[in-house]
Automatic annotation (TrEMBL), chain A:
<protein>
    <recommendedName>
        <fullName>Tubulin-specific chaperone C</fullName>
    </recommendedName>
</protein>
<keyword id="KW-0963">Cytoplasm</keyword>
<comment type="function">
    <text>Tubulin-folding protein; involved in the final step of the tubulin folding pathway.</text>
</comment>
<dbReference type="GO" id="GO:0005829">
    <property type="term" value="C:cytosol"/>
</dbReference>
<feature type="compositionally biased region" description="Polar residues">
    <location>
        <begin position="148"/>
        <end position="159"/>
    </location>
</feature>
<keyword id="KW-0597">Phosphoprotein</keyword>
<keyword id="KW-0143">Chaperone</keyword>
<dbReference type="InterPro" id="IPR006599">
    <property type="entry name" value="CARP_motif"/>
</dbReference>
<keyword id="KW-0007">Acetylation</keyword>
Automatic annotation (TrEMBL), chain B:
<keyword id="KW-0342">GTP-binding</keyword>
<keyword id="KW-0547">Nucleotide-binding</keyword>
<keyword id="KW-0460">Magnesium</keyword>
<dbReference type="InterPro" id="IPR006689">
    <property type="entry name" value="Small_GTPase_ARF/SAR"/>
</dbReference>
<dbReference type="InterPro" id="IPR005225">
    <property type="entry name" value="Small_GTP-bd"/>
</dbReference>
<dbReference type="InterPro" id="IPR044612">
    <property type="entry name" value="ARL2/3"/>
</dbReference>
<comment type="similarity">
    <text>Belongs to the small GTPase superfamily. Arf family.</text>
</comment>
<feature type="binding site">
    <location>
        <begin position="23"/>
        <end position="30"/>
    </location>
    <ligand>
        <name>GTP</name>
    </ligand>
</feature>
<dbReference type="InterPro" id="IPR027417">
    <property type="entry name" value="P-loop_NTPase"/>
</dbReference>
Amino acid sequence: MAALGVEVTVPKDDGETNTAVNVPESVLRRDQARLEEAERRRNVKESQTVKEEKSDFFTSTFNAEKTAVEEMLSSSNFSDRDKAAKTLEEITVRIQQLQKFLNDSMLFLTQYEIRQAQASMQKLQSSLDEKRDLVLPKKKFAFRSRNAGATKQPEPSKQTTDKSASDVGGTVVVDAAISVYQCGFSNAENQVLIMQAEEIQQKDVLLSHLTNCKVKLYGCPSTLHIKNIRSCEILCGPVSSSVFVDQCTDSTLVFPCQQLRTHNTTATQIYVHVTSRAIIEDCREVRFAPFTWTYPGIHDHFKVAGLDPDRNNWTDVDDFNWLAAGTPSPNWTVIPETERISSWDFVGPS
Amino acid sequence: MGLLTILKKMKHKEREMRLLMLGLDNAGKTTILKKFNGQDVSTISPTLGFNIETLEHRGFKLNIWDVGGQKSLRSYWRNYFESTDGLVWVVDSADRLRLEDCRKELSTLLLEERLAGATLLVFANKQDLPGSLSKDAIREVLALDDIKTHHWCIVGCSAVTGENLLTGVDWLLDDIAARIFTAD
């Protein structure tokens, strides 16, 4: 029995150990395979997603940065002007970076999160603006306030050329700007004003605040500005670029040009030679006729100005306040041929 | 590779940009556009409405929108703001009387939310005219140094001679490209 028992137990033992090892091994192997597969899948999945593109990551980063900026805003010492400017600058940059971060993250955020984040951005921005207004009050109309300061400067500074004026500051530039218009006439009444070709050759000419005057410009300026004119007669040679008319009443304007831009003008007759198109804006009772003035040398001046004497689109007027196609604008008309002025020597005030 | 990266790569492939050109009337917007595109500039009329040009430059496809600057058209500018990558602000450097107007219009534009991401290029145009202000003077008058919300640059140019137009546009392209195409 014993032998048998031994005989029996050995194989049994073997069998037991075999099964004890065998069964768990296959299970283990399968388990191992399963785990490996899961691991592999996870790795694949992880490699496909980027940590930065999770809303959790976004929310925590965004909030951390937001809090940091808020703290900077509330706790920084703004008593020293230079330091305060620097801090504000830094905050501005950080807010911009945060905005960029938000913009970059928009694609994977939900609508709600985007709205929330944008609201916080706005809050940050407005508290920064408040702070800036408080710490570094902005000169509201820098232009004028500085202008006042500029007038205290000694008079000669007005004669500086624009190049040197440019480094003095914007206000002075604009101030000087008007006086640098060496060319043109301003603030005159009941006068005959004449300029010759060499005075206006390729210059920016300004005629402003004239009443009851007769102006003749025998030459070709680069641009002609006509501003605040009443009851005047203005004749000019070929203008190589544009003529700018603003606030004109009861006047007669005569010139060739490349473009004519007319604004806020009423009851004015324009004898024009225009090689592109004329436009009117906020005008009433403007009447057009073809250019008829002539003076010795005007043909050469057409060449200098680069205008084609044979191309006159004086009837092509665009009214920017009348965009309806088909119906003509009520703001301008053509002067009937019988009413047109043909001789320019004895007309108007003198 | 994240979705965002894929989208950026797609946009990169297209390499398309939308530029919006604005400024007061008579600043020379249309002239700049036509000159840049190699067209005749002597017959340009004041813009009633807008012009669009699509052109290839340095491998980019540029859609340039040039909108009329007359006072009565300015209220329509906002219709063109959407998805603008670059804003080109054109200034007539010789028109001293209206520089203040010009500054106001520009500062209003920069508050516009839909232009918040756009790069700003200021062209101080008409530098060929003897009476024109330098680009530094324009920068001063327009208070450009106060702009903190946009990347900006000012370039003195002449649309008639074509001087510096390329310099300006190249800067604009580099800035935009750095922002939208190579952010990864």
